[in-house]
From TrEMBL:
Broadest EC class assigned to this enzyme: transferase
Name of the protein described by the UniProt record: ethanolamine-phosphate cytidylyltransferase
Gene3D superfamilies: HUPs
Keyword Transferase: yes
Lineage: Eukaryota, Fungi, Fungi incertae sedis, Mucoromycota, Glomeromycotina
GO biological process terms on file: phosphatidylethanolamine biosynthetic process
PANTHER family in alphabetical order: ETHANOLAMINE-PHOSPHATE CYTIDYLYLTRANSFERASE (PTHR45780:SF2)
Organism name: Rhizophagus irregularis
GO cellular component, one term: cytoplasm
Record key words, sorted: Lipid biosynthesis, Lipid metabolism, Nucleotidyltransferase, Phospholipid biosynthesis, Phospholipid metabolism, Transferase
Pathway: Lipid metabolism; Phospholipid metabolism; phosphatidylethanolamine biosynthesis; phosphatidylethanolamine from ethanolamine: step 2/3
The family this protein is said to belong to: Belongs to the cytidylyltransferase family.
GO molecular function, one term: ethanolamine-phosphate cytidylyltransferase activity
Cytidyltransferase-like domain: residues covered: 14-137, 204-296
């Protein structure tokens, strides 16, 4: 259906912290974008968040980059105020503001959206159940300093590790663990994929993409620039556990898929891609022209072979300089473990707030 060219563009405002940007945040942006034509996303600074909510895990520049990489965000406003004023909405010419159906307050208890609510410029989207920054931090706080015991090869698949991770979770009643159950509808909503067109250069990359972060984003951006269609293979939970050991992955396959699909550089994903890049990967989904990988060594496959042996032999393997040694999944976990006390206090405050919110909803 063609749109009336004279129709005024509807501009939507969303704001938030977007700490450890996850698929719940992305889903809020997706829903908000669907309510209009152009999505402006205000992201609060570290200082503003510290004042009203507590410390963040990701620094403001990392959070800005994560939101910019989300395919539904058209414009990111850095250092947006924690209290959403009519002035800020007017400055960016926004018609209304969208927020998830939970209450967000200033440190003194004032509703952050009172002004836009009073002006009739407030709309709600459905909050995604089973995922939050608090839950992600909780998963990491269960880890100890030796969390990154790695294996020498994928051969040592051991389901006991995953089981012990979940029993660990059961033993820690303080921490709410993800009950994220992504449906096929959610995956369809996130994919909005296009097929490669004749002449398109298809680039393939694969990996875990756990706790999707700016390191992944920069890597995918660089990979996409090698061609014009980016296919991403995501390894399943057992494979990741076999390679990375004890507590990994922190996010299950479907959560990891949703985060990757929300990234603007990605065109399509393979759910549960094989660890070694084989003929099927190179030809069955699309004809792959380039296989790219970061310049860090990869673990050998079960048979002891290099997982990139085939693309290397075919001369289609390209190495990409890894964007940053600091921003890795391990690096993020270390930030939390090193500041354990601070994050545990933050968790306690968040859990208390969640309890009050639950009581409020039960009274409705
Ligand atoms: N949001 C959502 N679903 C989630 C988490 C967040 O829809 N599971 C929405 C929020 O309602 C808000 C936007 O994402 O509209 C930005 O949220 P943010 O300010 O980062 O705060 P939180 O709601 O506290 O997010 P989290 O609980 O993950 O820290």
């Amino acid at each position: 259906m063609s749109q009336n060219p004279n129709r005024k563009q509807v501009r939507v405002w969303v704001d938030g912290c977007f700490d450890m940007m996850h698929h719940g945040h992305a889903n809020a942006l997706r829903q908000a974008k669907a309510m209009g034509d152009f999505l402006v996303v205000g992201v609060h600074s570290d200082e503003e968040i510290e004042k009203h909510k507590g410390p963040t895990v990701m620094k403001e520049e990392e959070r800005y980059t994560a939101v910019e990489a989300c395919k539904w965000a058209d414009l990111v406003v850095k250092d947006a105020p924690y209290f959403t004023s009519l002035e800020v909405m007017e400055k960016y010419n926004c018609d209304f503001c969208v927020h998830g159906d939970d209450i967000t307050t200033l440190s003194d208890g004032t509703d952050c959206y009172q002004a836009v609510k009073d002006a009739g410029k407030y709309r709600e989207c459905k909050r995604t159940q089973g995922i939050s920054t608090t839950e992600l931090v909780g998963r990491m706080l269960l880890m100890t300093r030796d969390h990154h015991k790695r294996r020498s090869s994928i051969a040592s698949i051991n389901n006991e590790d995953l089981t012990s991770f979940s029993s660990n979770i059961k033993h820690n009643p303080e921490i709410k663990i993800s009950h994220c159950l992504p449906t096929s509808k959610k995956i369809v909503q996130f994919s909005e994929g296009r097929e490669p067109e004749p002449g398109d250069k298809v680039v393939y990359v694969d990996g875990t993409f756990d706790l999707f972060h700016v390191g992944h984003i920069e890597f995918l951006k660089r990979a996409k620039s090698l061609g014009n269609y980016l296919l991403v293979g995501i390894h399943d939970d057992q494979t990741v556990n076999a390679i990375k050991g004890v507590n990994f992955p922190l996010m299950n396959l479907h959560e990891r898929v949703l985060s990757v699909l929300a990234c603007r550089y990605v065109d399509e994903v393979i759910l549960g891609a094989p660890y070694s890049v084989d003929e099927n990967v190179l030809s069955k989904v699309y004809k792959v022209d380039i296989v790219a990988h970061g310049n860090t060594p990869s673990f050998p496959d079960v048979n002891g072979k290099d997982p990139y042996e085939l693309p290397k032999a075919l001369g289609i393997y390209v190495e990409i300089e890894n964007p940053s040694a600091e921003i890795t999944t391990d690096g993020i976990i270390n930030r939390i473990i090193e500041h354990r006390k601070m994050y545990e206090e933050r968790q306690a405050r968040k859990n208390e707030k969640a309890k009050l919110e639950e009581e409020r909803l039960n009274q409705k």
